Amino acid sequence: VDRDGRFVSQRELPRLALIRPTLRSDDMVLRAPGMLALHVALDRAESELRVRVWNDWVPAWDMGALAAQWCSDFAGRALRLVRFDPEQQRLADMKWTGGVAAETAFSDGFPLLVASAASLADFNARLAARGTPAVTMQRFRPNLVLSGLQSWDEDHVDELVLQTDEGPV
Fold first, then answer.
1. How far, in whole angstroms, is CA 61 from its chain's centroid?
2. Do residues 151 and 118 make contact, with C-beta atoms less than 8 angstroms apart?
3. d(Cα 145, Cα 71) in Å, to the nearest integer?
4. How does pLDDT run across 101-154, given as a tens digit for each residue?
5. Dihedral angle at the C-alpha atoms of 161, 163, 168, 169, nearest 10 degrees?
6. Residues 88-98: pLDDT tens digits?
7. How many angstroms from the chain centroid is the CA of residue 47?
8. Residue 140: C-alpha distances to residues 111, 144, 151 (Å)
9. For the chain, which terminal residue's Cβ has fewer other Cβ atoms within 10 angstroms, N or C?
10. Spatial distance between the Cα atoms of 102 and 63, rounded to a whole number of angstroms
11. Cβ–Cβ under 8 Å, residues 137 and 120
């Protein structure tokens, strides 16, 4: 977030797309070009604050001065790294969820962004036909990439069920 507690996204600072997080059992490691790795403990936070994500004011946890300095140095402007308060609830806009109360956190609006490998291939074929270079899946920032579908079928999926060896999750 910026100095005013307003979220900052890759739309505003495309350089943020270069940060590579790795979640481990007790910390998150952030890596970025030209930066030393930052280890952020998941069980500690420095202070409580309220941040703004679009039109929502949301309770959050500030992850400390070191994390803020790392983010600021990399982004080239003053930022703070914050964590969603797991005791709170933020819902996606129901006009887009078909009336389902879908919990989200700091994401733009939805807890999952789904894309398919077939759609990316189709999109890249269209780009190639125009003489434009291909893009990677990272360009779309999905949380979940599906395979085995026809292009754009993910636009018509109403429900996803995750299966483990023990059964549906």
1. 17
2. yes
3. 28
4. 888 888 876 778 899 999 999 999 999 999 999 999 988 888 899 999 999 999
5. -80
6. 888 888 887 87
7. 22
8. 15, 11, 15
9. C
10. 26
11. yes
What sign does the CA torsion over 9, 15, 18, 24 have? Answer: negative
pLDDT at 22 over 80: yes
Cα 57 → chain centroid: 18
Q: How many CA atoms lie within 13 A of 24 on its CB side?
A: 9
Question: Which candidate, 109, 114, 108, places its Cα nearest to that of 140?
Answer: 114
Please give the structure tokens belonging to residue 49: 């604050």
φ, ψ of residue 23 in degrees (nearest 5): -90, 130
Please return the burial class of 106, using the count of CB atoms within 10 Å of its CB with bins 0-12, 13-18 and 19+: middle
Beta bridge partner(s), residue 83: 61
Among 162, 151, 55, 63, which residue's Cα sits nearest to residue 112? Answer: 162
Q: What is the pTM of this model?
A: 0.75
| Cβ atoms 37, 19 nearer than 8 A | no
Which residues, in sequence order, are CB contacts of 97 under 8 Å at separation 6+? 110
Query: Length of the chain, please?
Result: 169
The partner residues of 38 in beta bridges, in order of sequence, read 30
Q: Write the Ramachandran bin of 99: left for phi over 0, alpha for psi from -120 to 50, otherwise beta.
A: left
Q: Is 65 helix (H, G, I), strand (E, B) or coil?
A: helix
The encoded tokens of residue 86 equal: 């797991």
